Amino acid sequence: MGLMDILMQAGGGSLLEQVAKQAGINPSQANDLIKSVGSAMFGQVKGRVESPKVDSSGLEELLQDSKFANMLENPQEHLQNPRMKEEGNDILSYITGSKEGSREVASQVSEKTGFDASLIKSLLPMLAPLVIGTLTKGIASDDVPVKMKPSGSGDNGLMGMLDFDNDGSVMDDVASLAMKYIF
Q1: pLDDT of 140 over the 50 cut
Q2: What is the rounded distance in angstroms from the CA atom of residue 29 to the CA atom of residue 46?
């Protein structure tokens, strides 16, 4: 099972219904939208951890918080919690780096899917904690081929956790897992 599978199966598939309801779209459209937004966010995480100019320690801390992985069990509770939008925006800043980064993600997904960028921008903070939960669960799961490097290895931390094939780069690992399940 890949990262996109983990995200799409959140709440036994109820994530689709929740996003469809909140966005005013049908479940098939919600499926396409979640896959596109999820892939864009996974790509943002990949880019941030690979950049030597970015401190990814905040992302690393988020991945160690099991509450995000636990949200995948009952996403409707998370999505209906009004405080989660604020927390989702905070998490989104770790994923995209800034509000401008979030707008860029929304614009790119809008161009790819045809959905209005404002709709996508409203979904980003909602889905950001679930994307972090997906990565947390993927890292801990035997179903995703992830090898965590021992803390004494050269690339420990988030980069080490996401370097599934231990080749020194996470680009091929996260991107291939996320993109494998797109359309």
Answers
A1: yes
A2: 26
Q: Are 166 and 173 in contact (CB under 8 A)?
A: no
Encoded tokens for 175: 């991107």
pLDDT band at 168 (very low <50, low <70, confident <90, very high): low
pLDDT surpassing 50 at residue 180: no
Q: For the chain, give every domain's residue range.
A: 3-179
pLDDT score, position 96:
93
Contacts (Cβ under 8 Å, ≥6 apart) of 122: 23
The conformation of residue 148, written as its DSSP 8-state character, comes to: P
Q: Which of 57, 55, 75 is nearest to 15 (CA)?
A: 75
* Whole-number Å distance between alpha carbons of 46 and 170: 7
Residues 6+ apart with CB under 8 A from 90: none
Q: Per-residue pLDDT averaged across 38-58, rounded?
A: 86
Q: In this structure, what token pair is assigned to residue 118? A: 């404002």
On whether the CB atoms of residues 37 and 92 are closer than 8 A, the answer is no
Q: How far apart are CA 25 and CA 144, in angstroms?
A: 31
Are 91 and 128 a contacting pair, CB within 8 Å? yes
Predicted model pTM: 0.78
Do the beta carbons of residue 11 and residue 135 sit within 8 Å?
Answer: no
Report pLDDT for 169.
55
